[in-house]
Amino acid sequence: MKTWTGLLAAGVLAAAAGPAWAADPAACRTVRLAEPGWNDLAFTTGIASVLLKGLGYAPDSKLLGVEVIYQSLKNKDLDVFMGYWDPAMVGYYEAYKKDGSVETVHQNLEGAKYTFAVPQYVYDAGVHDIADLAKFPDKFGKKMYGIEPGSNQLMFDIIKDPKFSLTGWNVVESSEVGMLAEVKRKVATQDWIVFQGWAPHPMNNDIKLAYLTGGDAYYGADLGAATVHTQVRKGYTQECPNVAKLLDNLTFNVPMENAGMGYLIQDGMAPADAATKSLKADPKVLDAWLAGVTTFDGKDGLAAVKQSLGL
């Protein structure tokens, strides 16, 4: 018994002194993320990617349409999506929630909003509600401007809703950048335009705009007041608990995202560079984000990320 006790004690001491076990299995090293080309999600996904890289993981981020993202999560071709806007995207998520193939794991932002917007001069001229659009078809050219194809279903649904009297209207789909470029062109000449607006986004500072009421049944109450959530494929949190811990810690705020998105849109920075700049400007967020998180090989996660950022 003495010999066994001594060997056990020696083993415990050796384990404590030796290298730590890997926090996640080898299959978790590559973390497959996706975002649909929206700058808020490009920025937050960039943050996650920079942190994962600093922890010794190999983040692989792809640009995909919303429907493709959900199909890829269901098929286990993707691991993480950080951009589920609730309630605006309830319709997209409903089938995947029902079959359990995509899991919502964390609310990463509150204070967001998402609905129709117009320039302030259009609002001042009497367009306060989505129902007001039908009063001025010629002013708008019977067009409303959206973002990427696959991300504007609510606009199409509103056009089909007879209570808005928008028969014959069209949704112009391009991209976030393309839509905002068109908005700025219209504003420069004081022409009328209605478009998808949301916060966080620098557009709220760059353009004098107003949000339209009337979309509660589609975008949610209070001008599309929303929360944003992180989602993963079924079973991912059990398979990769260390990455799951990081995802559970990652919580953003509107001012942080406004600034970060400004780096992307106004400064032309890549998502990883914008994320790095943001983290260096406000490194105290790392304490909460990396609490209980290790590197891929089981070492101090906070120290590793700070070293990778040169802090």
From TrEMBL:
<dbReference type="InterPro" id="IPR007210">
    <property type="entry name" value="ABC_Gly_betaine_transp_sub-bd"/>
</dbReference>
<protein>
    <submittedName>
        <fullName>Choline ABC transporter substrate-binding protein</fullName>
    </submittedName>
</protein>
<keyword id="KW-0732">Signal</keyword>
<dbReference type="InterPro" id="IPR017783">
    <property type="entry name" value="ABC_choline_sub-bd"/>
</dbReference>
<feature type="signal peptide">
    <location>
        <begin position="1"/>
        <end position="22"/>
    </location>
</feature>
<feature type="domain" description="ABC-type glycine betaine transport system substrate-binding">
    <location>
        <begin position="30"/>
        <end position="279"/>
    </location>
</feature>
<dbReference type="Pfam" id="PF04069">
    <property type="entry name" value="OpuAC"/>
</dbReference>
